[in-house]
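Re: that backbone. Tokens:
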């Protein structure tokens, strides 16, 4: 399945991680580009991260001990300020 991320938007993929051994509980995906970008879901392995970074997306892994809301707000502020 594919999901389209609009330009200058971000999404959370926590519900699309299906591998039990995946080292992160969530992924924040940021599209800082001016283009719509299709991503492949669900997420099965860590290689997915590098594959999608090569499309121009910023992928922020969220670990068990990370503060998801703090990471989301930081990325949202960076996106709105125009910093990639």
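Recovered sequence:
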């Amino acid at each position: 399945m594919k999901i389209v991320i609009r330009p200058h938007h971000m999404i959370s993929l926590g519900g699309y991680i299906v591998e039990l051994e995946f080292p992160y509980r969530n992924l924040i995906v940021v599209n800082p580009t001016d283009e719509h970008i299709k991503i492949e879901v669900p997420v099965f392995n860590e290689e997915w991260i590098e594959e999608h970074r090569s499309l121009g997306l910023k992928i922020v892994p969220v670990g068990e001990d990370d503060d998801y809301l703090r990471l989301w707000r930081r990325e949202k502020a960076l996106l709105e300020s125009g910093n990639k």
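Strands lie at 2-5, 9-12, 26-31, 37-40, 58-62. The helical segments are 47-53, 68-81.
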